[in-house]
């Protein structure tokens, strides 16, 4: 079935060096995968991916000092812009921002949209421990709202994480789900979604743990009389987009579907961090599932993303 991929990644030379310099080539404990534009285009052909939107994955660039982060942000965005110019009918990209630096991030938003052709942005759940929803980032979110930006959220390992646990349970296996959930709940508690209604948010990995925890948060807010009347997380979930990167069937996706708008679920391959073989396996699971209707499959794999991207 024809697809639009809203969650896959590119690795620029600068990002590869960043992973080598700061993580010994094992960002999030995972060896840096091989990436080439040609390899991703071949995956697209094999899986009937009509259009792919690529972004930088974690660890976030903020692991580098300020000046190095700013140079790296420029490099990864320049690399993606050039890549898209070479394959304009097949590829788009979400730009990176040098969070938590506010003025520099605001300047990058305009540069990326007005001069480099970015379709939107990928923001980490946290940058140096500062989470989306923190008041220190309000000016950045206000700018994204002003530009009616599309923003994909990507998990970033929280700090600190017990080193003994990290050796056995890699961050992508567990911490990514926790940090995505933590960020969205924190954003709702701080009224991000009502303050910045023009941002189109994409939550990764079928909503992480939100389908499990959302009702608990809503009930707890009422029970403990949390101040400032936070955004109701159940209502917020009706407004958000969710991508299907990773293993969503047979359990997680049906739970999510009971709580969200099925017109806001989009496909994500998560290549190259998910190997081509596993990407194909997960794609086949969606296409052959008897849990989903044919109409739902078409929406999730293609038309919902086409509507979001105005393609």
Topology, please?
Elements: E1 3-9, H1 13-23, H2 37-47, E2 49-55, H3 66-86, E3 91-96, H4 102-114, E4 120-124, E5 126-127, E6 130-131, H5 138-146, E7 150-154, H6 163-168, H7 175-189, H8 192-195, E8 200-203, H9 210-223, H10 233-239, E9 241-243, H11 252-257, E10 265-266, H12 276-288, H13 294-309
Parallel strand pairs: 1-2, 2-3, 3-4, 4-7, 7-8, 8-9, 9-10
Antiparallel strand pairs: 5-6
Helix pairs in contact: 4-5
Task: Give a written overview of the molecule.
The chain is α/β, with parallel strands linked by helices and 311 residues long. Helices cover 47% and strands 14% of the residues. The protein contains 13 helices and ten strands. It has helices at residues 13-23, 37-47, 66-86, 102-114, 138-146, 163-168, 175-189, 192-195, 210-223, 233-239, 252-257, 276-288, 294-309; strands at 3-9, 49-55, 91-96, 120-124, 126-127, 130-131, 150-154, 200-203, 241-243, 265-266. The chain has an eight-stranded parallel β-sheet. The chain has a two-stranded antiparallel ribbon with strand order 5-6. Helix 4 runs parallel beside helix 5 (138-146). The longest helix has 21 residues, at 66-86. The chain is globular and about 55 Å long. 46% of the residues are buried.
